[in-house]
Design goal:
This protein has 275 residues and is α/β, with parallel strands linked by helices. The chain is 36% helix and 20% strand. It has a seven-stranded mixed β-sheet with strand order 3-2-1-4-5-9-6. A two-stranded antiparallel sheet has the order 7-8. Helix 3 packs antiparallel against helix 10. The structure holds S-adenosylmethionine.
Length: 275
């Protein structure tokens, strides 16, 4: 299967890449530890939700529920929040973390392409860093529009073409030869839903679309978190050859020692769309 197909293959996403939060954890850990942004990502996204007491919210592709775990003290009273994900493992992790939070959370395994909710149920729908995984995006967006109330808002985070653009270039040629089939899609290739094309993909379904860009970068001063990030993108059937991992570790450690750190660009943002 090609990388592009694998990236949107629900069996691969459920059973491998997102079976649990381990791959996401490795990537989030790098961002958390070495980000140069003034505001943390999840609180910055949460502000854009503009939640008010009593609102009904749906999150599609919630992962382990970080948006809510990191903002739980800021959730207004009497909100009704439904967290869904294609992966049952992710839903279970979100539920384990949030069930006793004192807020009204519900959890459900669900594909954004076929939502089991009545028309006009939600004030806000969230789909962060997941629309690029959806094989039939028009169907997914039609479902979001259908379940939103009139004047409801859709919040969708994604990355742009410059996101992590230095990372593949930091892999020495010798290592690249040994790891030709490493899965680096999402870093090296264009995402199907990205900052550059998101507006035109959303506009057929929503009356008004805004883009909020997040000003950020990475200054990485430790080699292991960067290795863990790179390895989290690897194809399921590939083991990292020991020699490749060792050479990569050595090359990146030498660069950090010589230059004090490694700069990597980030390019993320959030589309806010009104029904
Ligand atoms: C990159 S993670 C993002 C997780 C979370 N939204 C965040 O920003 O931390 C993508 C998530 O989308 C889920 N996903 C992929 N395709 C999906 C689909 N068609 N419907 C619902 N969830 C999906 C994956 O299982 C995974 O948990």
């Amino acid at each position: 299967m090609s990388d592009a197909k694998l990236f949107q293959d629900s069996a691969y996403l459920q059973k491998n890449q997102y079976r649990d939060s381990r791959n996401l954890d490795a990537r989030a850990a790098l961002h958390r530890r070495f980000s140069t942004a003034v505001a943390d990502w999840q609180p910055w996204v949460f502000d854009l939700l503009q939640l008010k007491p009593g609102m009904r919210v749906l999150e599609c592709g919630c992962g382990p529920g970080w948006l809510w775990r990191e903002n739980v003290a800021r959730v207004p009273d009497h909100c009704h929040i439904t967290l869904t994900d294609l992966s049952p493992g992710m839903v279970a992790e979100a539920e384990a973390a949030l069930a006793g939070s004192g807020h009204h959370f519900e959890f459900q395994q669900a594909n954004i392409q076929a939502l089991e909710f009545a028309d006009a149920t939600f004030d806000v729908v969230v789909a962060n860093h997941m629309l690029y995984h959806v094989p039939d995006l028009p169907q997914g967006l039609a479902e979001v529009r259908r379940v939103l109330k009139q004047d409801g808002r859709f919040i969708a985070a994604t990355n742009g073409d410059n996101h992590m653009k230095e990372l593949p270039l930091l892999v020495p040629e010798a290592v690249r030869q040994m790891t030709a089939s490493w899965r680096m899609r999402g870093i090296t290739d264009q995402l199907p839903f990205r900052l550059e094309n998101g507006r035109s993909l959303l506009e057929p379904y929503f009356a008004h679309v805004d883009l909020h860009r997040y000003d950020d970068g990475l200054w990485v001063t430790e080699v292991e978190p960067l290795l863990a990030y790179a390895f989290s993108m690897i194809k399921p059937e590939m083991d990292v050859p020991e020699t490749a991992a060792a050479q990569l570790r050595e090359a990146w450690a030498a660069k950090i020692k010589a230059e004090g750190g490694i700069h990597i660009s980030k390019d993320s943002g959030v589309f806010e769309a009104q029904k």
